[in-house]
Design brief:
alpha+beta, five-stranded mixed beta sheet, Beta-Lactamase
């Protein structure tokens, strides 16, 4: 009684819901109806017929002959919608399905007329002989309706959209449930009253499909992901297994004896054996995967999932063994085709390709594995993906010889050779291991491997470009250091030439000889320093910064320049700069040398150092020809620009680079005919954190 009451409530709800949807569909303007939904009025008629059927369930109860008569009306409306939807040029229905549809519509119409007339003339007496006839016709209509939905949707699937698929799926769901109810009743020889009373609930479940169609929700096709489809197949298989057990058990009970337990035991042993085989055997799993992909899916590959995994494998490895890009490329191509391993071959200095990396490839051929120049050339020119099984079987005389090496043909593990091409240049060659279930390559495999090879080639080409760029940067850094050193060597050569010319005139003077020996020692030391600077392991100047007294440094520069020109040096007592002493000395020496070169022989060059604005200021002042502002702005500190004959144009550029590396800079004030003033600004050591001034501030604050 409780179930019957629940059925009446659900029937009333379904009646109201479908009646409302039918009125809503009829009231909606045609311009607002879904343009992709064929025959929208037939959808409203189907909703109205379903509402009438729900009303019959409420009035006469599910399973009654009266409800079956109204069900024939509902089926006729649903079949009419299917006819208007799939019997069209945009979604053609096959000729056999058209015949089935006509037959079903005829049966439904006949049952409606016969059943209605019988109840009108004979009343309750008609239920005794009409019930079984209506039930059989309902089973026929349900079975045929499922065939029509399945065949029509598969045939016209490319042109269907989500609302059409939803409504057709709703009809199929309702017919499937009714067919199961009738089959259970026929097998058990008694009606499945519980399932029959739940018919209004199933009707409510398909109601959203009408709403989806009317509201234009989603214009794209319903496409299950490969994972969802595989899980659905597993669930369907499990349900089929349970249904088979139930049917065999029911049949065994009808026959009698202990066959029921025997059948159930046999099914259980079969299920355990199949499950164990799939769990333990990789070959069995691979075979099942191939069969499912071949017979249940339109394409062999789930392109979205495979491409995401392929790109993720190339971009970043997830383990210790995946840090090498070459190994990741071999792994990505192997996983794409279900191959358990792969070899990756790279070109050597002579152009032949040899094995450089492998992924899960058993050892045994790496020592002899190589592709000759001819083989590599043929693969690069033809861009051919080589099916080694086809090569082993032999090619016809009119096909091109790809010069596949003998060691590949002799190894049964080698399955496919994939050239990894980047703009018609072969970067690598990948050899894929034979999968557990070997198969011949088809057009889909070839297309996927060709595109995947190009994608992998872009990663490998970028990696090679990065390596080449890094090497070029090292050469560039070496050349930069060498260019600066050449500039300093030129200055030393000028100093030694001057010393040699003076030695011819003053070699007999003891004071000159002593000064010459001292100058040679200094020049030798500077040459040794230059060789150290040329080393790639030389530390940066900023890392050698320390507190440097300025006055001793300026006196040393004046002593070095004494052979060319006497300098006037003025320095504030105790001033200390924060920087590398060698770099500061190199900057001042360059500025002094330029000042001497630019000044007449009878004029003085001044070097003055003071503390100003919290920084150390070193001025080098000459009375030479001076420079224009445009030259200072545009050319003075640019490399390879020099006004001197035979100059390299690197002195000022290097001096500025060294100053900036220590946190300082160089400023220039000059005018043509009035000389120049180069100012080197450096951090003052006593104003840095921890310096003398900072310590005095802390002491005052503590008091």
């Amino acid at each position: 009684m409780m179930l019957a009451g629940l059925s009446d409530i659900l029937s009333a709800l379904a009646l109201a819901a479908f009646a409302g949807v039918a009125l809503w569909l009829l009231a909606r303007p045609r311009s607002r109806m879904l343009v992709l939904m064929p025959a929208p009025r037939w959808l409203a008629i189907a909703a109205a017929a379903t509402a009438a059927w729900c009303g019959a369930l409420y009035v006469w109860s599910p399973g009654s002959s009266q409800a079956l008569v109204v069900q024939a009306l509902r089926d006729l409306a649903m079949l009419g919608w299917l006819r208007m939807t799939f019997w069209s040029p945009s979604a053609p229905m096959s000729r056999p399905l058209r015949l089935v549809l006509r037959l079903l519509m005829t049966i439904s119409g006949a049952m409606l007329l016969v059943g209605g007339a019988a109840h009108w003339r004979h009343g309750a007496e008609a239920a005794e002989w009409l019930g079984s006839t209506l039930a059989i016709s309902a089973m026929i209509v349900a079975t045929g309706g499922l065939l029509i939905v399945d065949g029509a949707v598969r045939r016209a699937g490319a042109g269907l959209r989500m609302p059409v698929m939803a409504v057709a799926g709703g009809f199929a769901m309702l017919w499937s449930y009714e067919l199961n109810v009738q089959l259970i009743g026929a097998l058990t020889d008694k009606p499945a009253s519980t399932l029959i009373h739940l018919l209004p609930a199933v009707a409510l479940l398909i109601l959203p499909t009408f709403v989806v169609a009317a509201m234009d929700v989603g214009r794209e096709r319903i496409r299950l992901s490969r994972t969802a489809a595989m899980r659905t197949l597993i669930l369907i298989g499990a349900a089929t297994y349970l249904i088979l057990i139930g049917l065999v058990g029911a049949l065994a009970r009808l026959i009698g004896g202990d066959y029921g337990e025997l059948a159930q035991g046999t099914f259980l042993i079969f299920a355990l054996g199949a499950g164990g085989l799939l769990f333990l055997s990789a070959r069995a799993r691979a075979w099942l995967s191939v069969m499912i992909s071949k017979h249940f899916f339109e394409h062999r590959y789930d392109y979205r999932a495979e491409w995401m995994r392929f790109t993720a494998t190339l971009a970043q490895g997830d383990g210790e063994d995946d840090r090498n890009l070459h190994r990741r490329a071999a792994k990505a191509l192997a996983e794409l085709t279900g191959s358990p391993g792969a070899l990756l071959m790279l070109p050597d200095a002579l152009g032949a390709f040899r094995v450089a990396e492998q992924w899960h490839w058993p050892a045994g051929i790496e020592g002899e594995a190589s592709l000759s120049l001819r083989s590599a050339f043929m693969l690069q020119e033809t861009r051919h993906i080589v099916d080694l099984d086809a090569e082993r079987r032999g090619r016809s005389s009119d096909e091109q010889d790809l010069a596949v090496p003998d060691w590949l043909l002799a190894d049964p593990r080698a399955w496919v050779v994939v050239p990894v091409l980047h703009f018609h240049r072969m970067i690598a060659v990948v050899v894929l291991h034979r999968p557990p279930v070997s198969r011949a390559l088809d057009w889909e495999d070839l297309d996927v491997l060709r595109i995947a090879g190009q994608q992998a080639a872009s990663y490998l080409a970028e990696s090679q470009s990065q390596a080449a760029l890094s090497e070029a940067k090292r050469f560039d850094e070496f050349n930069r250091r060498f260019a600066f050193i050449m500039h300093d060597i030129k200055n030393l050569a000028s100093q030694l030439n001057l010393l040699a010319s003076n030695a011819e005139r003053h070699a007999d003077k003891p004071a000159f000889r002593a000064d010459m020996v001292e100058t040679l020692k200094i020049s030798s030391g500077r040459l040794s320093d230059l060789l150290v600077r040329l080393s790639a392991r030389e530390r940066g100047k900023a890392a050698e910064a320390e507190r440097t007294l300025v006055e001793p440094l300026l006196n040393a520069v004046a002593a070095d320049a004494n052979a060319r020109r006497a300098l006037f040096v003025g320095c504030q007592a105790g001033i200390a700069a924060w920087g590398d002493a060698g770099s500061i000395r190199q900057i001042v020496q360059h500025l002094v040398a330029n000042a001497i070169d630019a000044s007449p022989a009878d004029t003085a060059v001044q070097v003055i150092a003071v503390a100003e604005q919290g920084r150390a200021r070193i001025d080098v002042i000459d009375q030479g020809a001076g420079m224009t502002r445009a030259f200072i702005r545009d050319e003075l500190f640019k490399p390879f620009v020099s006004t001197k004959e035979g100059g390299f144009g690197l002195g000022a550029f290097e001096a500025l680079q060294l100053a900036q590396a220590m946190g300082g800079t160089i400023e220039v004030a000059s005018e043509p005919g009035k000389g120049s003033n180069f100012t080197l600004w450096l951090p003052l050591a006593d104003t840095r954190p921890g310096g003398a001034i900072d310590e005095r501030i802390k002491k005052v604050a503590g008091q």
